From TrEMBL:
PANTHER family: PERIPLASMIC SIGNAL SENSOR AND SIGMA FACTOR ACTIVATOR FECR-RELATED, PROTEIN FECR. InterPro entries: FecR, FecR_C, FecR_N, Ferrdict_sens_TM. It comes from Methylomonas rivi. This is FecR family protein. Keywords: Membrane, Transmembrane, Transmembrane helix. Residues 249-316 form the Protein FecR C-terminal domain. Gene3D superfamilies: 2.60.120.1440, 3.55.50.30. Pfam families: DUF4880 (PF16220), FecR (PF04773), FecR_C (PF16344).
Length: 320
C-alpha cells in the first residue's frame, strides 16, 4: 500500500463495501473472476485499501473464534458471491464481535499487584485509568471487552478511573462493590471494615447482599462494618485522604491504635502498648511517612505517653 493510501481517509460507504468484500471472499464459491473484481475495486480509490485493512483488523481481533462455529459466518461461506449484502456482511462481523467479546471476557486473566512494608506502586491501566497502591497491599486487575474489574484483597489504593459508559469500572473489597461514575476515590480494606472516600466525582456503593447501590459524592466517605452494614456518610478532606500518595500521613482525632497500625505499614517496626487503654487515646496531625522519629517526638509532646524504641519494637507506655 502506498503512503498516499495509508494517509487517505475512507467513508462509511467505503467501509461497508470493504466489509461486504471481506465476507464475500470467505465464500467457498469465490472464484478467480470474483477476486479480480475485488482487485479492481481495491485499485479504484486510494481509500479502499485502507477501508479493507480496517475490516481485516476487526476480524484479526477475533482470533479465539476463528475456529468456532458462528452460524452467520458459516452461512456467508456457503452463500454464492451475489448473495452477500452489506447488511449481511455487517451482521456477520457484529455477531462475531459479540461472540468474541463474551469469549475474551471469559478468557481474560487477572493481573496481580502486591506491595510490601514501606513500598508503594503506581499502576497505569490500558484504558487510561491509574491506581496508586499503598504499602502492604494486594489487588488484582481484570480488563476485558465487557468490564474493568479490580479486587482489592488487602490494604489501600487510590483509583483514578477513566470513565466509559459501556464498560463499568468496579472495585470489589471484602463484600463491598464500588462502581465508578467518573471519579477519583480511595478504598481501604481491613479484616473488619472497608472504607471508601471520594475525592472527585461520584461512586455507587453496593454491599454484596443488596440489589441496589447507594451514591457517595466528592468530599464524603463511608464505611462498611464487620457486619456488612453501611455506616453513616461522613465528610472527608481530599488532601488528607490521599496524603500518603505524596508521602504524608494525616490524622484527625484518630485512635492511637489505628495510627500505629498505619505506621507499621510503612516501617519495619512493631508497636506495643504497655497499657491497652493507651490505644484509645486520639491523635491529630500531619506527619512525614519516611521519618519515624519526628512522629515519636510529636506523640510524646501531644499525649501523656512515652515511646521507647528497642531495636524494631516501640513500646508505648504512660508517662509517670
Amino acid at each position: 500500500m502506498s503512503s498516499n493510501a495509508r494517509q487517505a481517509r475512507f467513508s462509511q460507504r467505503s467501509f461497508e463495501q470493504a466489509v461486504t468484500w471481506f465476507v464475500a471472499l470467505q465464500s467457498q464459491d469465490c472464484d478467480a473472476a470474483r477476486r479480480a473484481e475485488f482487485q479492481r475495486w481495491l485499485d479504484k480509490h486510494a481509500s479502499h485499501p485502507l477501508a479493507y485493512t480496517e475490516a481485516e483488523k476487526l476480524w484479526a481481533n477475533l482470533d479465539p473464534l476463528k475456529s468456532g462455529e458462528l452460524p452467520d459466518l458459516q452461512a456467508a461461506r456457503r452463500a454464492g458471491p451475489q448473495k452477500v449484502s452489506v447488511r449481511t456482511g455487517l451482521s456477520v462481523l457484529l455477531a462475531a464481535a459479540l461472540a468474541a467479546g463474551w469469549w475474551l471476557d471469559y478468557r481474560a486473566a487477572p493481573v496481580g499487584y502486591i506491595t510490601s512494608v514501606g513500598q508503594r506502586q503506581s499502576i497505569s491501566l490500558a484504558d487510561g485509568s491509574s491506581i496508586e497502591l499503598n504499602a502492604v497491599s494486594r489487588l488484582s486487575v481484570k480488563l476485558s471487552w465487557c468490564r474493568r474489574e479490580i479486587t482489592l484483597l488487602e490494604g489501600e489504593a487510590l483509583f483514578n478511573a477513566a470513565h466509559e459508559t459501556l464498560r463499568p469500572f468496579t472495585v470489589q473489597a471484602n463484600g463491598l462493590q464500588i462502581r465508578d461514575i467518573g471519579t477519583r476515590f480511595t478504598v481501604r480494606s481491613r479484616a473488619d471494615a472497608v472504607r471508601v472516600a471520594v475525592l472527585e466525582g461520584e461512586v455507587s456503593l453496593k454491599p454484596e447482599h443488596d440489589w441496589l447501590g447507594q451514591p457517595l459524592t466528592a468530599g464524603h466517605s463511608r464505611q462498611l462494618d464487620g457486619n456488612k452494614q453501611l455506616q453513616a456518610i461522613e465528610t472527608s478532606d481530599a488532601d488528607n485522604e490521599a496524603g500518603w500518595v505524596d508521602g504524608r500521613l494525616a490524622f484527625e482525632h484518630t485512635p492511637l491504635a489505628e495510627v500505629v497500625a498505619e505506621l507499621e505499614r510503612h516501617h519495619p517496626v512493631r508497636f506495643v502498648f504497655a497499657d491497652p487503654a493507651l490505644a484509645r487515646q486520639t491523635l491529630s496531625g500531619s506527619f512525614d511517612i519516611a521519618d519515624l522519629q519526628p512522629f515519636l517526638r510529636a506523640v510524646e509532646t501531644m499525649l501523656p505517653v512515652r515511646a521507647v524504641r528497642k531495636k524494631q519494637t516501640i513500646v508505648i507506655s504512660g508517662r509517670r
